[in-house]
Design a protein that fits this description.
2 helices, 56 strands, 47% strand
Length: 694
């Protein structure tokens, strides 16, 4: 609205006719349901419900019974026919424009699936401020949200958020604070208004809540850019973080120019985009690398494809009316559903704003589909497709003019999103017609492999790292928010763990992650753990001789040095030259294990009782070797453990008899760094004594 033409306003609640429950990408959960909560926040500077009229549209695919329950406990019932039904709630029971706690909410419950929308429109003919929002069903609500709005206009217009509690004893937290911002009972509402832009504010709760952006009035953009002082409210129910995606196609309306805000919930979020340009705005980032709560603003004239390495929220903003450039309408915002939440069919009805200054409001649809299968979209008429943008395209179609109860259906078996808007010189509104509401936060990793990619694979360690796709650092989780079901059982010690290690046995395992009680969309996978044990038939082999490695089936053996010893695929080793060698077995499932070092010597096994080992290596092989530890283990080739009578043992180290080794056949000595010579005299026989240097 123009700042010098503020009068009154109307709030109109409206709805889509029907959203198909079939969802190609989201699988289960849509904006259709049987239980909805709605409230209304400030529009321009109007202080109370005396300036509002409310209109509720419930749009059903078949006859249903509806119950309306206000936050103060007042109820009423009605039997609805299939189609569009209008209900006018009492403004004083659902409207709030100041910070604090009230009971100004409306609950809508039906016996059959319906879809509901809300339009927030000013009342007087000189007032030009409105916006619309889809209303999410209760089963799509969550415990974590981020505020994504725009700078409010100066003076008495504030940016705000408004929250409805759907359960008793709901605690609301802001930006990670340990003390609740508010504690609400079922149906109570908490509103927070500020002259500052609250975009990036992090809201969490211990129980599911409905969260609305309720910006009283804004001008988009805020820095002029040849736009005049026209402002409007922003009204949009926000989707919980668990429903955010990583691929988004943002279309443009008939005005041909929009602003986009992309907001991150996790540190290290990296965005790529095609079709937009970064705009420098207060509070926004100048790059496409974001941390939690940060946003970047883009401008697009032909549509913009956005992708990210972590889930993001994306809203598109229609601009303020500009003098002399042909643009109509006022600011409005719409949530943009990610590709992951596309559905296969959407049936909806437009909202019905009151005509201003005698002019009706034309309505339009933007249909977004994969570019390659766009021709499979039904009910296209009189419009045109955009170019290929990141593998997607959008179709602009005119719908109705003025107040109508017509409904429209668009379908595409490969998935689609539909956005609806109305625009004339005095009024604008913008909202998604329908989408999936699946819990996309249920993805997880097993040993840093995405759960879908690890399915039916073999893992080679029984130490398994489990990590949610979402990084929950600094996030307070409600009770039982994350539950890991492993082999059909839930370990209480694992509840609300998002990055931890489990020790599992060898064999087949299943893992399921249940997020926020959503069993329907729980992600699951399966894998097999294989632990290999390898062994050799002897610790060494003579040159030209053979030994056998185990296992000898189910995989392949290789030598780490074929100049010392070779090995066949089934594990037969042949000595080639003096030295140490190891062998690695790789199973047909891809797991591998390596043997201890094996001795290859001219004569093996040693036959002289004078022979000895240094660190389990035959003295003749040790000659000239380097050891990396001063703790040196000596033992004779012959094992004297069970010998009742033993000969004498004289260990001569660096030319002197070592007292520590006197008459020891198996012992350890700490030596200094440098070259050492060791000689063993057994039974006083100096003639056959052998020695080595290392």
């Amino acid at each position: 609205m123009k700042t010098n033409k503020i009068n009154k306003f109307i709030l109109i609640l409206t709805g889509v006719l029907f959203l198909s429950s079939t969802s190609l990408f989201a699988q289960n959960g849509t904006t259709q349901g049987t239980d909805f909560w709605v409230t209304f926040g400030g529009n321009s500077g109007y202080p109370n419900a005396n300036y509002v009229n409310l209109q509720v549209r419930i749009v059903a695919s078949k006859a249903t019974t509806v119950t309306y329950t206000y936050g103060d406990g007042t109820t009423s019932n009605s039997n609805l026919s299939a189609g569009v039904t209008t209900f006018s709630p009492t403004g004083s029971k659902v409207f709030t424009s100041t910070t604090g706690t009230t009971s100004k909410s409306l609950r809508i419950q039906t016996t059959e699936d319906v879809s509901v929308y809300a339009l927030n429109q000013a009342n007087q003919t000189l007032t030009e401020t409105a916006d619309a929002s889809n209303i999410l069903p209760a089963n799509a609500l969550g415990n974590e949200y981020y505020h994504l709005s725009y700078n409010s206009s100066s003076g008495y217009h504030d940016d705000g958020y408004t929250i409805i509690a759907t359960e008793n004893d709901t605690k609301i937290y802001e930006n990670g604070a340990s003390t609740p911002k508010a504690t609400l009972q079922k149906g109570q509402v908490y509103s927070n208004y500020s002259s500052a832009n609250q975009t990036g504010t992090h809201i969490t709760s211990n129980k599911p809540i409905a969260y609305f952006v309720t910006n009283q009035a804004t001008k988009i953009p805020t820095n002029g850019d040849a736009y005049d002082a026209y402002t409007s409210c922003l009204f949009q129910q926000m989707y919980p973080v668990k429903t955010w995606g990583k691929k988004i196609l943002v279309p443009v309306t008939v005005r041909g120019l929009e602003r986009i805000r992309v907001l991150a919930s996790e540190a290290g979020t990296v965005i790529t985009q095609s079709g937009g340009s970064i705009k420098t705005v207060a509070g926004g980032q100048s790059t496409l690398s974001l941390n939690a709560g940060q946003f970047v603003e883009l401008e697009t004239s032909n549509g913009c494809y956005i992708s990210s390495n972590k889930p993001v929220a994306v809203c598109s903003y229609m601009l303020s009316k500009a003098t002399g450039n042909g643009y109509q309408g006022q600011p409005a915002m719409s949530w943009i559903p990610p590709v992951e939440q596309y559905t296969t069919s959407i049936t909806f009805a437009t909202v019905s704003p009151i005509a201003k200054n005698g002019s009706t409001c034309p309505h339009y649809a933007l249909i977004v589909t994969p570019y390659a299968t766009r021709s499979e979209t039904t009910n296209l008429s009189g419009g045109s497709w955009s170019a290929n943008i990141g593998g997607y395209a959008f179709y602009k179609r005119s719908l109705s003019t003025g107040n109508t109860n017509n409904s429209y259906t668009f379908s595409n078996p490969n998935g689609l999103a539909v956005l609806v808007y109305g625009i004339n010189n005095d009024e604008t509104h913008y909202y998604p017609a329908g989408s999936g509401t699946a819990n996309l936060a249920n993805g997880f990793f097993v040993n840093n492999i995405y759960y879908e990619d690890v399915k039916n694979k073999t893992l080679c360690s029984n130490e398994i790292q489990l990590r949610t796709e979402r990084d929950y650092t600094g996030v307070t989780l409600s009770a039982n928010y994350l539950k890991w079901e492993i082999d059909g059982n839930i370990d209480n010690a694992d509840i609300n763990q998002w990055n931890f290690t489990k020790t599992l046995t060898t064999g087949y395992h299943t893992v399921k992650l249940i997020v926020d009680g959503d069993e329907t969309n729980a992600a699951s996978t399966n894998f097999t753990i294989e632990i290999l044990t390898v062994s050799a038939s002897a610790p060494g082999v003579a040159i030209g001789g053979t030994l056998t490695l185990t296992p000898n089936t189910g995989g392949t053996w290789v030598s780490n040095n074929e100049d010392i010893a070779t090995v066949t695929a089934n594990g037969t080793v042949t000595g080639v030259s003096d030295g140490l060698v190891s062998f690695t077995f790789t199973s047909n499932n891809g797991c591998s294990a390596t043997t201890d070092k094996i001795i290859v010597a001219t004569v093996y096994p040693p036959v002289s009782t004078n022979d000895f080992y240094v660190n389990d290596i035959l003295y003749s092989t040790v000659n000239g070797m380097t050891f990396c530890n001063g703790e040196v283990h000596f033992r004779t080739v012959k094992d004297y453990t069970n010998e009742a009578s033993k000969p004498t043992f004289e260990w001569i180290i660096d030319g002197s008899t070592d007292a520590d080794g006197n008459n020891e056949w198996d012992w350890t000595k700490t030596l200094t760094a440098g070259i050492h010579t060791v000689k063993l005299v057994v039974g006083g026989n100096t003639t056959d004594a052998v020695s080595t240097t290392f």
